[in-house]
# Entry
Amino acid sequence: METNILKFEHPEYLYWLIAIPIIIAAYISARYISKKRFESFANIKLKKYLMPLYSRQRQNIKFIIFILIITLTIIGTANLQTGSKLENVKREGIDLFFCIDVSTSMNAEDIAPSRLERSKQAINNIISKLKGDRIGIIVFAGNAYVQLPLTTDYAAAKMFLSTINTNLIPTQGTAIGQAVKLATQSFGNTEHAKAIIIISDGEDHENGEAVKAVQEAVKYGIKIYTIGMGLEDGAPIPLYNKYGKQTGFKKDKEGNIVITKLDDNMLRQIAEMGDGIYVRASNSNVGLDKIFNEINEADKTEIESRVFTDYEDQFQWFIGAAILLLILEIMLASGKKEWENKFKFFDIDNENSK
# Structure
């Protein structure tokens, strides 16, 4: 039996969708400013006499069509695909969870461009080298949750990885124990080789919970590797506004700038208990390559999974719809007065203003 699954051939183009709300906000702002300027020199009721061909309804409809055209074009360019052929595939590999610390201290820039961004770059490079391994992503701060379940879709993994930031979890902290426990549960009861890579600055205040979580993971044959992000001298924690502009540095109650330093005692202990290794990151090397090489040398298990081997392009439907809407937008822009008078589509403003 064949089933369909959706994916985008070029998911990176979907980031252009972020521009849509910005365009909408700019349009609303421009309309408001235009209205205020008109009211500053004339009564709004005179508008239909001063601008007889103007129609607010038509302008709004044209703008909505414009937004739909952009949206459909972006989705079409990203090329939505549907899986059409499902096959059983055997592979050798491991199941691997990246547990990434997203507490605000990971914004510190002692490791450029920041602890978190450097971690993401290193993970992205490792993903490019994977073959047959299933990977998942867990983010943690005061709490932990699964950002990406185990998958062999490396393109999706990179897309989810790129969205990770320190605003994902509002509760601050470094709950390493919760992250390890969640990863252990997410692996499931399989005989696959399993490993966890924890990337953190190590400022964990719940050591007891972390130790218990690691002990439980080891019972299931899970190896745990750790990477310490941060330098001995430490660095201040930059603060940003909603526009991404730095506004200063985090301060304590006395008004002193907080300096965050790497605390790798717990990370070393976790790696030792988890039969893995601890690596201290630097500006020249995060250390993931060393861990990845060791994982590759370990015994891998043969895993059978059902994957889609053929996909059908669906971009034509979105591009076709965008072209039809473009034709409609051109018709609305033609401004044929007799066509408007016949159908009375855009006389709502004029009627309401009487």
